[in-house]
Amino acid sequence: MDEERALYIVRAGEAGAIERVLRDYSDKHRATFKFESTDEDKRKKLCEGIFKVLVKDVPTTCQVSCLEVLRILSRDKKILVPVTTKENMQILLRLAKLTESDDSLEKVSEFPVIVESLKCLCNIVFNSQMAQQLSLELNLAAKLCNLLRKCKDRKFINDIKCFDLRLLFLLSLLHTDIRSQLRYELQGLQLLTQILESAFSIKWTDEYESAIDHNGPPLSPQETDCAIEALKALFNVTVDSWKVHKESDSHQFRVMAAVLRHCLLIVGPTEDKTEELHSNAVNLLSNVPVSCLDVLICPLTHEETAQEATTLDELPSDKTAEKETVLKNNTMEYNGMNMEAIHVLLNFMEKRIDKGSSYREGLTPVLSLLTECSRAHRNIRKFLKDQVLPPLRDVTNRPEVGSTVRNKLVRLMTHVDLGVKQIAAEFLFVLCKERVDSLLKYTGYGNAAGLLAARGLLAGGRGDNWYSEDEDTDTEEYKNAKPNINLITGHLEEPMPNPIDEMTEEQKEYEAMKLVNMLDKLSREELLKPMGLKPDGTITPLEEALNQYSVLEETSSDTD
Predict the structure, then answer these.
(1) How far apart are CA 153 and CA 196, in angstroms?
(2) Where are the beta strands (DSSP E) in 330-403?
(3) How confident is the model over 161-179, as pLDDT tens digits?
(4) Nearest Cα to 491, choosing from 402, 396, 401?
(5) Which of 18, 27, 300, 429 has the most CB atoms lying inside 10 A of its own CB?
(6) According to the model, what pLDDT value does residue 279 have?
(7) pLDDT value at position 9?
(8) How far apart are the first and last CA of the chain?
(9) Which of 281, 293, 256, 474 is CA-nearest to residue 378?
């Protein structure tokens, strides 16, 4: 009934009546996302009628009401086929200022029309394959970049930027060809990075360093939304950028990584928005070539070093607890480098672990990022090693028991999701410089067996990557407890009584044969298969392993 009344007024009424009836329709259906199929034909005709109104010279307020209703109706995929034409798309592009003209964004009264047009285009492009094809034909990506350049440094038109970026993200998500066009032809990497700089109000103190005001206000909701949309669009543009081929590419990625470092050190208007902002920054950092991630850390400035020393000196000598607090708050410094961004990533990772769900989508990106940073950059690895795997003192509990970051990561090493357990184990392995004996000290053999089997290191040794030869130092507590640590569980166990001490020789023989018969039955029924280690350290059926060792011995004896 609503559609029938609105359609009648749209066809026959004047601008004021059209505006009133469409405003009523919009208010009533603002939260409608599912529509009755019985009124489908009426909604199609209403869309067509609205487009006919939009080509007329009607007041701005009437245009906004038309576009609001069109945005609501475009949520229904079924009605978009007949209304998604090249002519109608061009009407929306004109209203959104997505034309080849050099019109500047000076008329503030037009901003609501531009925003609503962009919202309509977002819905239509997302829900209609025809609109997606027309977007390529009309070169929509180039027009969106042109509009972004017009409003790049204009803070009072954040809504326009936000929905321009959202549409750019959708296009680059739905069409892989557009990613290449954005990256190379339209200079999208540089443009989107500049949008982020503008949203964060970055002031550069060096080539890849920005000034951070920890006491400054949080980002506004509009700036945060713009930044999130820009980060998502940049992710699509850089999704295949692991390798840098030109020096100019390396410089641009370093600038982007520096902007992302700044992003990690600021907060949004709410805790949820801050987490969403940081989550998208982590995803984008995963696309940055690992050689360019060195800008995530930077040398401490003289002011930062002097401030830390002054804070400690100003405290009286008897204020031990206060001094310990100051030192604890300054743990983001390591070897003269500012580790704030890495510390934020570590805290972000721990929060994602504590959530206890969606590990593959929420946790693996940050774990993978920290792993690659640790593998490529020594200072980052050593800082993370100090934070995650500090020197062992208390080994009375199993490695997976407790609330430290180490305990949480060790628990993930036996997670049911193969991808999660692999990346958690890989992260700890890299922190241990890919040395098996060091990993086992912190995790126990049982927790590490999956990784070691996959890497062919069950017999010990180390991984393929090279690390510095600085040695780990064990605490006195660990050295004293080491002889009594259970290598499988990784913790100190009280000596257990030997159950066969009280048996006679006949009882021992009986129990041994019973065990042999049970294992033989399991093996014959293929419920259990005896395994052995091949010479390369990987697992294989026991018979095959024995045969390989026999061949090696024969070869060795022939050589002698």
Answers:
(1) 11
(2) 333-334, 337-338
(3) 999 999 999 999 998 889 9
(4) 396
(5) 429
(6) 97
(7) 85
(8) 97
(9) 293
Choose among 376, 451, 379, 380: nearest CA to 409. Answer: 451
Contact between residue 169 and residue 225 where contact means Cβ atoms under 8 Å apart: no
% of the chain residues with pLDDT over 70: 88
pLDDT (0 to 100) of residue 328: 43
Residues in the chain: 560
Q: Which residues of 521-530 are buried (b: 16+ CB within 10 A; e: fewer)?
A: eeeeeeeeee
For the chain, the average pLDDT equals 86
What is the pLDDT at residue 154? 62
Residue-wise pLDDT for 338-354, tens only, equals: 999 999 999 999 999 99
Contact present, 394 and 477 (Cβ < 8 Å): yes
Cβ contacts of residue 558 below 8 Å, gap of 6+?
none
Distance CA 45, CA 212 (A): 54
**Residue linked to tokens 């400690």:** 312
Q: How far apart are CA 262 and CA 219, in angstroms?
A: 12
pTM assigned to the model: 0.85
Q: Is the dihedral of CA 334, 337, 338, 343 positive or negative?
A: negative
What span, in angstroms and rounded, lies between the C-alpha atoms of 141 and 400?
Answer: 50
Q: Which two tokens stand for residue 6?
A: 């609105």
Cα–Cα distance for residue pair 265/250, rounded to 1 Å: 23
361: Cα within 13 Å, side-chain hemisphere:
5
Answer whether 308's CB lies under 8 Å from 262's CB: no
The Cα 317–Cα 301 span in angstroms is 27
149/165 Cα distance (integer angstroms) = 12
Map residue 163 onto helix, strand or coil.
Answer: helix
Residue of 343, 342, 364 whose CA lies nearest to 353: 364
Find how far residue 416's CA is from the centre of its chain. Answer: 21
C-alpha to C-alpha distances, 36 to 44, 49, 79, 187, 253, nearest whole angstrom: 13, 20, 12, 44, 49
Mean pLDDT throughout 280-305? Answer: 87
Do residues 174 and 140 make contact, with C-beta atoms less than 8 angstroms apart?
no
Pairing verdict, β 209-210 and 539-541: unpaired
**DSSP label of 181:** I
Could you give the C-alpha distances from 60 to 16, 97, 114, in angstroms and in order?
11, 14, 10
Among candidates 118, 60, 68, which has minimal Cα distance to 89?
Answer: 118
Give 223-266 as a 3 state SS string.
Answer: HHHHHHHHHHHHHHHCCCCCCCCCHHHHHHHHHHHHHHHHHHCC
